[in-house]
């Protein structure tokens, strides 16, 4: 049997590029569409730098790269026609900054919701009905109980347009499965992905001031920023700082590939709508993460405690039983490994993908 | 001062055409965009039949008609450029069949949600920030209390994609207002619009088997259908049949124009997001509606009691205080008037707008 052909949207972003490495290592045929909002292409290169490096890491090539957005129905026509038959779509393309989504809600809804609808319509048209969606723990809103399992209500008290856009897409996916039993859809609800590939060739590099803790820490470590703000130390947690369920990007991308393989090898088990948490199942405070980073890198992170950020939640962590039972998957990497791999990437690439000459 | 220029989407549909009559009578300048999904254009006519008749009723003309959809960003560019400046957009274009939405969720989400996002993006681009949205009582889902007021939670237990699409748009509108305080948005949450213009020239004529009670009753009256199914007589209501808050289409369209005038005359009071119920505030059972129809038309409606429809709610009616206090508006027409005007329209137009030769 030929290897399955996977269309991956947003394939040159942080999660996307790590998934591409894992897909290439598993000999899948890969088509990527990305609009380069969270990646860059260097002068003269046909590929975004993250994908060029993914090929360098694996010694294998992606089949095709399309520069564009899933809002573009004509481009999707071209992609599905030129690459027929596509077996599975992994939809990772989305805008992802919570703060920006509050400022530019229409841009977020157009990209994340509109782009998903257009993509799903194209899939329907070309009779491709296997879909893996990049969702987020943010769909749970304020926890009614912990740990968060997949039966926890979603969409209630989601505090920002980014989170609401993910909820809307999940709702749409559920309705699609209700209407047509031939669809198989897995929504992977990411907790807090951090870290970088062990090669140090790919990792997360926000274009802007980082929203998330780990990229901020690593930019402080590399002295791009002088000091870390810790938002609140009066939460009801062990040291008063917020608790999150950090998951190593290698575990996260592996979760995608495990889900993909299950969907391909036992399709009947995956008919319908299947949300699955990807987390470790345990929480880490901000101060614990800083401490782990300092320990595993030897670098001091100056920080100061400031006021809580409106909308921030105290404690989030996952119940990971569904991933364990249905996929036989669990996260393996420690917080120390998340920190050291982040530092490996950041120190080799202080300017992210803009610096083409990387340490060997 | 020149009369304000209003872009009305879905202007040739049932609610739209009645709003157009009211807008023309009030000397507004009107641009209509409609894709003719719920209306028809007869051979050789530049206008949909409902709009031709709206002009006939009022003796006044709309400025321009565009045949197309609000999903079409290029067409919107053309409309906003050719008709600059547009003062207010009234967005009534939407697919509206609950049952169809369950079968074709992507079509509904693309049209209702995608189409609204594209329209709002165009408004942002052309700096038009006054918006009146056609929402629905369906956003409330299963009532937590009655009567339903505007503070009742929305989006929880919405039972179908149609209702969820309205919720999503409301959520998007709220976020748009949060991000930019220059927007004025009124969402009119319709209860159950019925009836027809007193001229008998315009009214509701579903293309398909009617989903809603009144069009079904009137098609039975005119013998297009043999018998009415009453879905359940064991609800906790006075006679066991479902209770709804029916509102005469004349009252409903008048509510739009009153809202529009308030928005134009005292803009500062309407900055932000303003949901407003349009209903009468009182409920009527299915059997009461049949009885009123028979009484006011002298026509017997054969019916039989059948099983409940899954997803149907027992009782819905509106708290209408906000409309009264903020708009000085309330519904005036009786159930009997709703029935007799429906019959006047239906009997003069047994085939809806397809019959061009109407009784004088």
Compact summary:
The structure is a homodimer of 360-residue chains. With 360 residues, the first copy, chain A, is of the alpha/beta class.
Q: Can you describe what's shown?
A:
Two copies of one chain form a homodimer. By secondary structure, the first copy, chain A, is an alpha/beta fold. Helix content of chain A is 38%, strand content 16%. The first copy, chain A, is built from eleven helices and 13 strands. In chain A, helix 5 (105-125) packs parallel to helix 6 (161-179) and helix 7 (213-221) packs across helix 11 (335-348). The relative contact order of chain A is 0.14. The A-B interface holds A 102-106, 109-110, 113-114, 117-118, 120-121, 124, 155-156, 161, 164, 168, 171-172, 175-176, 178-179 and B 102-106, 109-110, 113-114, 117-118, 120-121, 124, 155-156, 161, 164, 168, 171-172, 175-176, 178-179.
């Amino acid at each position: 049997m030929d290897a399955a052909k996977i269309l991956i949207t947003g394939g040159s972003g942080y999660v996307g590029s790590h998934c591409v490495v894992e897909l290439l290592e598993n000999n899948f045929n890969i088509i990527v569409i990305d609009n380069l909002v969270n990646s860059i292409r260097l002068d003269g290169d046909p590929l975004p730098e993250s994908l060029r490096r993914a090929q360098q890491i694996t010694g294998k090539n992606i089949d095709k790269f399309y520069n564009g957005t899933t809002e573009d129905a004509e481009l999707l026509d071209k992609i599905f026609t030129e690459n027929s038959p596509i077996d599975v779509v992994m939809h990772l393309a989305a805008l992802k900054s919570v703060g920006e989504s509050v400022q530019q809600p229409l841009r977020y809804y157009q990209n994340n919701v509109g782009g998903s609808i257009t993509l799903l319509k194209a899939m329907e048209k070309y009779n491709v009905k296997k879909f893996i969606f990049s969702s987020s723990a943010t769909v749970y809103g304020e926890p009614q109980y912990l740990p968060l399992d997949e039966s926890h209500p979603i969409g209630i008290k989601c505090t920002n347009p980014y989170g609401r856009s993910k909820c809307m897409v999940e709702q749409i996916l559920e309705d699609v499965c209700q209407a047509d039993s031939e669809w198989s859809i897995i929504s992977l609800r990411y907790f807090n992905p951090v870290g970088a590939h062990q090669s140090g060739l790919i990792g997360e590099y926000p274009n802007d001031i980082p929203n998330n803790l780990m990229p901020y820490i690593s930019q402080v470590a590399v002295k791009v920023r002088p000091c870390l703000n810790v938002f609140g130390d009066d939460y009801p947690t062990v040291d008063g700082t917020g608790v999150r369920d950090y998951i190593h990007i290698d575990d996260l991308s592996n979760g995608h590939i495990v889900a993909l393989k299950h969907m391909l090898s036992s399709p009947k088990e995956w008919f319908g709508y299947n949300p699955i948490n990807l987390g470790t199942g345990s929480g880490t405070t901000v101060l614990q993460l800083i401490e782990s980073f300092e320990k595993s890198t030897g670098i001091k992170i100056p920080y100061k405690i400031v006021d809580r950020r409106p909308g921030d939640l105290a404690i989030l962590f996952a119940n990971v039983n569904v991933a364990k039972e249905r996929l036989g998957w669990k996260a393996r990497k420690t917080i120390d490994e998340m920190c050291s791999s982040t530092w490996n990437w950041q120190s080799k690439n202080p300017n992210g993908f803009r610096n083409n000459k990387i340490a060997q």
